[in-house]
Predict the structure.
Amino acid sequence: MLEFKRAVSPLLRPMQLLSEGPAAAAAATAAALTAAELGGAPYGLVVSAGIGGGFAPAPLGSVVVAEAIVAADLGAETPDGFAAITELGFGTVEHLPEPALVRAVAEATGAVRGAVLTVSTVTGSAGRAAELLRRHPGAAAEAMEGFGVAEAAAAQGVPVLEVRAVSNAVGPRDRAAWRIGEALDALAGAFRDLTPALATWKEPSR
């Protein structure tokens, strides 16, 4: 995960978030944001970045910028199928990054725009991939941390962005088809290209 520090033009500095899953990501992000605030250097933007699985709009090696950061498996099973936690009258399942920032980053990097789904269990079957797309037809990628990062950022009023490079297709697990190295190279290239977009973006007043 990376953050863009305002007033330093332009600087990307790692928060050193090394965790898997939304709960660990939320805890680590909250701790980093709090420490920065107390240290007198609050963050202006949190960028959750990494590799992930891609749905059809995002082939291997492509980059995805989240138009929506969605908790795709936060809810309950019912006789009629899955019900999101919001359908039960609780919480939230979606954070929407600033549209102008999403557009600027996507244009700068050539990234696909779409929803990035946060899951606690990575998809490993064609059936679950199809079910996720049925519930979230705008999905472009799947990962494990974005929603946790977004929850922590929202709690402190800090804007959030999620950027993913696609290392594998969402669906049946086929390790031989994974392209982790290529995805990491694509992610590094995206950050070289998006830095000017971040430098010109105007942070909303807090």
About this structure: Residues 1-11 have pLDDT under 50 and may be disordered.
